[in-house]
Amino acid sequence: MDKQQLIQELQFKAVRSSGAGGQNVNKVASKVQLTFDLKKSQALTEEQKSLLENKLAHRLTAAQLLILTCDEDRSQLKNKALVVKRFLAILEQGLFVSKERKATKIPKSAIRKRIKEKKNLSEIKQSRRKPDF
Hints:
Elements: H1 3-9, E1 11-15, E2 31-37, H2 46-55, E3 65-70, H3 76-95, H4 108-128
Antiparallel strand pairs: 1-2, 2-3
């Protein structure tokens, strides 16, 4: 995964933020909207694309577009940096493949130890009983 090539493939759009902000909110487009086309990406292999398609299915549109927005800051540049950082984190998380669990046998020494402890506890409890005449 080449991060520089991925960043070059991104499309940014600046839009006006919603919510409170006074007169400035009506003039300045500080909210940044990032769009990434998964199908047309040249930076990812076909295997990576299919993996991301499965893992990010809930985030992708019908046209396989990933759309992220950021309006946390008043500065458009800071919002752009934040949304790119978030995008790269989402991709890294989507491309992460967890290791398969290997089933292991319980060692015979552990089985013997458990049975020995059970017998020992049983003998202790039997010695506490009243004798049978």
